[in-house]
């Protein structure tokens, strides 16, 4: 729990996670997991069960659902998942507040980028489909489909930004996002509208918001460079 107001002063850059943070793809992810389950004889899950178990590395998440890697190698399961997910992700809606938050950052002169565990090609294609590609200075995804950490990519992005790490605010929806942000010195905040439920996120001690709209209200109306985040 956060007892005191946290002051993020001098923010120069916003970095967003993509899946679950800016795009509302939870239902599609559950659908794709369950299609894999049908194919590999694993029981289906609900969205609530998904959010209670979802984690990085993704291989551990699939193991927790009952997938047997001795029968089916994990890369084959991931390929089956992506056949369903990648073909449909561009049809998912954006979360409420995305456009307003990006516009507010632009008015304040704050740079905006994306750091995602999605494959970079699919990420770029989805941004193009949503008309968002030009809204971001840097778009960083993975160059493989191994569903591993994006910590190494965060290090490279921080070097590319060339600004003090503490002046970057990272907005994500998972404990992995929280850990990645802290590993490079970014200020992390999490939204509870994505791939992990609020109870899990709260135990991390992260600053939580019920959505991007709530996060937007905490930005100073006159200058987004001063952000006051209260107890979530």
From TrEMBL:
Entry keyword annotation includes Hydrolase: yes
What GO molecular function terms would the record report? metal ion binding; phosphoglycolate phosphatase activity
Q: Name one GO biological process term.
A: DNA repair
Q: What does the record give as EC number?
A: 3.1.3.18
**UniProt pathway:** Organic acid metabolism; glycolate biosynthesis; glycolate from 2-phosphoglycolate: step 1/1
- The reaction(s) this protein catalyses: 2-phosphoglycolate + H2O = glycolate + phosphate
Q: What are the entry keywords?
A: Carbohydrate metabolism, Hydrolase, Metal-binding
One GO cellular component term noted in the UniProt record for this chain: cytosol
Q: Respond yes or no to whether keyword Metal-binding is given for this record.
A: yes
Co-factor requirement: Mg(2+)
Cross-referenced Pfam families, in alphabetical order? HAD_2 (PF13419)
Per the record, the similarity remark reads: Belongs to the HAD-like hydrolase superfamily. CbbY/CbbZ/Gph/YieH family.
**Name of the protein:** phosphoglycolate phosphatase
């Amino acid at each position: 729990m956060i007892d005191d107001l946290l002051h993020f002063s001098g923010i120069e850059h916003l970095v967003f996670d993509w899946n679950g943070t800016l795009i509302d793809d939870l239902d599609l992810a559950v659908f794709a997991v369950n299609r894999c389950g049908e194919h590999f004889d694993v029981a289906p899950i609900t969205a609530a069960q998904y959010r209670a178990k979802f984690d990085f590395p993704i291989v551990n998440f699939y193991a927790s659902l009952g997938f047997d890697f001795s029968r089916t190698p994990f890369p084959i399961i991931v390929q089956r998942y992506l056949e369903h997910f990648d073909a449909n992700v561009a049809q998912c809606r954006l979360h409420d507040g995305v456009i307003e938050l990006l516009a507010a950052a632009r008015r304040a002169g704050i740079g905006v980028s994306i750091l995602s565990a999605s494959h970079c090609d699919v990420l770029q294609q989805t941004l193009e489909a949503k008309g968002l590609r030009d809204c971001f200075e840097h778009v960083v995804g993975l160059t493989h489909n191994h569903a591993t950490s994006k910590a190494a990519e965060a290090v490279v992005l921080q070097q590319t930004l060339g600004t003090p790490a503490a002046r970057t605010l990272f907005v994500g929806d998972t404990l992995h996002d929280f850990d990645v942000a802290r590993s490079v010195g970014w200020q992390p905040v999490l939204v509870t509208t994505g791939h992990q439920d609020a109870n899990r996120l709260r135990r991390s001690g992260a600053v939580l918001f019920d959505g991007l709209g709530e996060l937007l209200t905490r930005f100073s109306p006159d200058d987004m460079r001063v952000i006051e985040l209260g107890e979530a």
